[in-house]
Amino acid sequence: MFWIAFALFVIDSVLVTIIILMQEPKQSGLGDALGGGGGGDFGTMGGTAGGLHRLTIWLGVIWGLLALALQVIPRA
Asked: 37: which DSSP letter?
């Protein structure tokens, strides 16, 4: 069971990396994150950008759950 979870973890890690690299950058840098920009469009992404954003969140949640599972499942 451990090795199945580990294989899923590795596959999810690769997918998260690919999906993050596919997203377009905001080009606003750290200034926007610290309150320097408008930043009012957090939940208003549509089309492909919105789908990639949602997919990134889901893959991140799955990655975290698999990371926890790898600590609980004994290696056999």
From this structure: S
The gap from C-alpha 72 to its chain's centroid, in whole angstroms, comes to 22
The 3-state DSSP class for residue 23 equals coil
Per-residue pLDDT of 32-57, as tens digits, reads 556 655 555 555 556 666 788 899 99
Residues in the chain: 76
Domain locations in the chain as residue ranges: 1-22+47-76
Whether residue 67 contacts residue 12, with contact meaning beta carbons closer than 8 Å, is answered with no
pTM strictly above 0.90: no
Contacts 24+ apart (CB under 8 A), 65-69: 66/5, 66/8, 66/9, 66/12, 67/9, 69/5
Query: Within 13 A of 25's CA, how many CA atoms are on the CB side?
Result: 6
What phi and psi, each to the nearest 5 degrees, are found at residue 31? -60, -40
